[in-house]
Structures are given as structure tokens and as C-alpha cells.
Design brief:
The complex is a heterodimer.
Chain A: H1 2-9, H2 14-35, H3 40-67, H4 77-81, H5 91-115, H6 129-161, H7 163-172
Helix pairs in contact in A: 1-2
Chain B: H1 8-19, E1 22-23, H2 24-34, H3 43-55, E2 59-62, E3 73-76, H4 78-106
Antiparallel strand pairs in B: 1-3, 2-3
Helix pairs in contact in B: 1-2, 1-4
Classes of the chains: A mainly alpha, B mainly alpha.
């Protein structure tokens, strides 16, 4: 996990990394040592919070260092700062099942590909799955990240507009 | 420049540094303790706030004799302490006003 943390840290501007990188890694190791003795759910929340904090922090710092942009937050504060965020307990299990399904599908595809009879005429070689798996995961992450942000913005806008209060009022007046 | 009113995490970080110089881990734990576990900062969020507060001269690096590698301590500057006091005064005023208004409504 430390390697993943260091990898994500590379998203930050070089000047920022030079100033705070070493401290952040040391702090991450300290906090992770505390969390290692807790439940799986607490560890999952910790890792999600760290990843979310790092990604949003990297975007913010890049905008700040490159364009001198004012500081903005890319994640709802509740998500990056509060432990009120709760995973449904089944989430890690479902994620593990989905991951196992993807790995099995890739393996099965490889087995089928190697068991097919050879063609008599030359065919275009198939690229191994790992050559496009990582870019695919990256694109998927960007897609779901953007979709999540748009969804959150819609919910945020609706709440700010007071629509939910109108519902409360109408149901309360009955 | 951080302006008043401060966000809750920034206020808690400043409160944490008001008593004594602290390094990152100590700040995280103190913020969590002060907020009864409600505010738990990630490392990215904490150092984003520290970078802004350093730039605005609200906090500064504190040289510890026995500081180990990767554990830089920070402390409040006079400017930061003054702004923290302004924020506390603002909140006191609001609390007093809210208490008065609530009492008026009840009576």
C-alpha cells in the first residue's frame, strides 16, 4: 500500500513533493500502523479516505502551482474528512467477487485463445490483456470519478435549491 | 489567504497548534480528539491546509532538537494567533447572540 501511496504522490507538483512528500509518507506510515489493528471496515474507510484526499489534493495543488488558482475542493468534505461516511458491510465482499470475476474471465479468455486450432493463414497477433487492462482501469476510474462528481453536483444543487424542504413541508402539512 | 469564518478543519488545526508546536501525526490525533472523532483528516487534506497556512504566514516550521526524519513540527505565528483570536471572538459573539435570541423566543 505504501507503494500505491508513493505512486499517487507523484500526481502532485514536484515542488510540493520536495517540500512535503517525505513528511506525508512518514505520516501515512504512522497512521496506517494505528489502523492495522482495527477492523476490515475501518481499514477500508481509511484507505478510501487517503486515496480520495490524495487525488483531490493533487488536483488542487496542480491548479494552484500551475495556474495560481484559488483553492478548491474536489470531494465533498464529508467524504474526505469525516468518519461519518459508512460503507455498506457487503461492499468489500461484492468488490472482491467482481474482481475475482474479472480475473477469471481474463484467464478463461486466455485458455480459450490458446486452445483454438491454429489458422493456416497468418493472422494479426492479439495483444496480451495486460497491455490494455491498465489503461482501461485508468479510463474507468476517470469515467466513474467524473460521473460521481456530476452526480454529487446535482444532489448538491438540489439540496441548495431547497427542493427537499418543499417535500418536507408538503408532507408535514397533511 | 484564509479569511474568516474559517472552515472547521482549519480552525481545529489552528486550535491544535495554539497550545504547543506539533508535527503532522500529533495534529491529526489532536483534531480527531477535539472533534470527538467527527473530523478525521486525510494526510493529503492536512498537508494541503498546512501548505496554505504556511503561505499565508499563519503557521511556521518549528525546529525541534530531536526531530526525526520526516517529522517536521509546526507552530502558530503571531499573525495566525491573532486571526485565531478574531475567529474565537466572532464565534463568541454569535453564541451570545444566539443564546439571547433563543431565550427571548422562549420567554
Amino acid at each position: 500500500m505504501l507503494n500505491a501511496y508513493q505512486l499517487l504522490l507523484r500526481l502532485y507538483p514536484a515542488a510540493y513533493r520536495a517540500e512535503f512528500g517525505e513528511e506525508m509518507i512518514a505520516l501515512f506510515e504512522d497512521v496506517r500502523a494505528d489502523v492495522d489493528h482495527t477492523t476490515v471496515a475501518a481499514r477500508a474507510v481509511f484507505y478510501v479516505r487517503e486515496i480520495a484526499g490524495l487525488v483531490s489534493g493533487a488536483l488542487r495543488e496542480n491548479l494552484h502551482f500551475r495556474f495560481n488558482a484559488p483553492d478548491v475542493s474536489f470531494f465533498p468534505r464529508r467524504f474526505t474528512m469525516r468518519n461519518g461516511f459508512r460503507f455498506p458491510k457487503a461492499t468489500p465482499i461484492l468488490m472482491a467477487i467482481i474482481l475475482a470475476g474479472v480475473i477469471l474471465a481474463i484467464r478463461r479468455g486466455e485458455v480459450i485463445a490458446t486452445s483454438l486450432p491454429p489458422f493456416s493463414q497468418p493472422v494479426t497477433p492479439i495483444h496480451p490483456p495486460h497491455s490494455y487492462l491498465l489503461p482501461g482501469v485508468f479510463e474507468g476510474f476517470i469515467f466513474f470519478y467524473a460521473a460521481g462528481l456530476i452526480g454529487w453536483a446535482i444532489v448538491f444543487a438540489l439540496r441548495r435549491s431547497g427542493v427537499h424542504r418543499l417535500t418536507d413541508v408538503s408532507s408535514g402539512s397533511k | 489567504m484564509e479569511s474568516l469564518p474559517l472552515s472547521e478543519p482549519v480552525l481545529l488545526i489552528l486550535m491544535s497548534l495554539a497550545g504547543q508546536p506539533r508535527h503532522g501525526y500529533s495534529i491529526l490525533k489532536d483534531v480527531e480528539r477535539m472533534s470527538n472523532g467527527r473530523v478525521v483528516l486525510s494526510t493529503g487534506t492536512l498537508y494541503g491546509a498546512i501548505r496554505r497556512l504556511l503561505e499565508d504566514d499563519w503557521i511556521e516550521r518549528f525546529d525541534e532538537r530531536d526531530a526525526s526524519r520526516g517529522r517536521q513540527a509546526y507552530c502558530l505565528t503571531a499573525h495566525g494567533r491573532r486571526n485565531l483570536q478574531l475567529e474565537v471572538d466572532r464565534m463568541k459573539h454569535l453564541t451570545r447572540l444566539a443564546t439571547l435570541r433563543a431565550a427571548t423566543k422562549e420567554s
